[in-house]
Specification:
Helix content is 18%, strand content 37%. By secondary structure, the chain is an alpha+beta fold. The protein has a 7-stranded mixed beta sheet. It has a two-stranded antiparallel ribbon with strand order 2-3.
């Protein structure tokens, strides 16, 4: 299967949004606090007795709502196509004042979203998109690429680790409405960039 990854116009978001992001949760990473946190955290993988489906789009409205919530003018939208058909996509956020995930840094990029058609998963589409997203971010002065996932998405955690990301932060209380989920933030250094600067902060969700 020949995969072609390229930048898509933001007008392609409706087509992009048709790619399902839902997955079946069969395993989780239990997070144990060691010595009240002084000894760090331990992660242990556990199989679920009753698997369930997790759909991020059902929680936040998906790509169709991004323009209502954020200024997308500096974002990159990437598409993976096979024989012209869109089989995957990724969105990268940079230089967006008020976007908390960017930590007020102009040298940080966030892999905001990555998704692959169910029938194309496991075929290299995700890897091609991740590499393209990293290259896109580096070309715009990014020194690091940041990715958010959760302890209920074990395949994603393993995927980001394979792409050279390091687990940089564990936030056990990030989702008050989903107390069984733990936020995991991954970081990957990118080659070459301009010195870091700060961008103005404002509130965002």
């Amino acid at each position: 299967m020949r995969i072609k990854v390229g930048e898509e116009p933001l007008g392609a978001l409706p087509e992009y949004a048709k790619i399902p992001i839902a997955f079946q949760v069969t395993r989780v990473l239990d997070v144990t606090v060691v010595d009240g946190g002084m000894g760090g955290f331990a992660l242990a993988e556990r199989a679920l007795e009753v698997p369930y489906v997790k759909d991020y789009d059902a929680v936040d409205g998906g790509p169709g709502r991004w323009a209502e919530r954020f200024d997308l003018s500096a974002w990159g939208l990437l598409g993976a196509r096979v024989e012209g058909r869109l089989v995957g996509g990724a969105a990268v956020a940079v230089h967006t004042p008020g976007l908390t995930m960017l930590e007020g840094r102009s040298d940080l990029a966030v892999l905001w979203d990555i998704r692959v058609m169910p029938e194309a998963r496991g075929s290299g589409v995700g890897t091609a998109l991740f590499r393209a997203a990293a290259a896109w971010a580096a070309a715009r002065g990014g020194r690091q690429l940041k990715v958010e996932t959760q302890n209920v998405n074990v395949p994603a955690c393993r995927f980001y680790a394979r792409q050279g990301c390091l687990l940089g932060a564990i936030h056990r209380f990030a989702y008050p409405g989903l107390p069984h989920e733990v936020q995991l933030l991954w970081y990957r250094d990118l080659p070459g960039a301009s010195p870091p600067e700060h961008i103005p902060r404002s509130s965002d969700s």
